[in-house]
Write a structure and sequence with these properties.
Blueprint lengths: L16 E3 L16 H18 L24 E8 L2 E8 L6 H14 L15 E8 L3 E2 L11 E6 L2 E5 L2 H6 L3 H11 L12 E5 L1 E5 L5
Antiparallel strand pairs: 1-3, 2-3, 2-4, 4-9, 5-8, 6-7, 6-8
Helix pairs in contact: 1-2
Length: about 220
Amino acid sequence: MPPSVPNGFDPLKNGQEGVASAEKTGGGDLHSEFNGEERRFLLRAAHAVIGSALGEKSVPDADPDPTASSFRLSEKRGVFTTIYWKGNLRGCVGHILPSAPLLQTVMETAQAAAFHDPRFLPLTREELPNITISLSILSALEPIQPEQIEIGRHGLLISLGTNRGLLLPQVPVEHGWDRLTFLEQTCRKAGLPGDAWRKGATLHAFTAEVFGDEDVE
């Protein structure tokens, strides 16, 4: 089911799926939880599910190889998959909360980013040769105070009533935002006034391990 996105982000029925802003560089936790084989496998699976949906027969096999089949791939994790076409954002969809094993979530969000991000037309087969993929694998959400937010480490989820807005950790790094601007922009992503974080909105933070095709070549 394609997500709906008033004001750029809107959770679906279970509050777990939505569209987020993401940029290509920076952000995330400094500690690498996933090794090179696991990263390559997850990215290969994301490419494979998109290619398969477009009838591409020469996509890489998505079955795990022994070096990549660790318990981490079966853990339930939140994930955002971002697709770029010739370096430009082409789609970004993810699950905030862990609801399925990591591999399944990567494949689901990759397909959704390719075909169901309402900001873009569905990806076409002609575009396949020029796409790259980035994955943001999220930690658990934790309540946070504004003064605890670290630019480049934390992503933010701001909620007030039925309004929710999320920005990934790499976004303020790419745009050169300070903490105040990051808070204001996340509020606006939720369709709230920029100072809603001072007036009753709930703040949650998460970290993300961010890696893409260029990191595993």
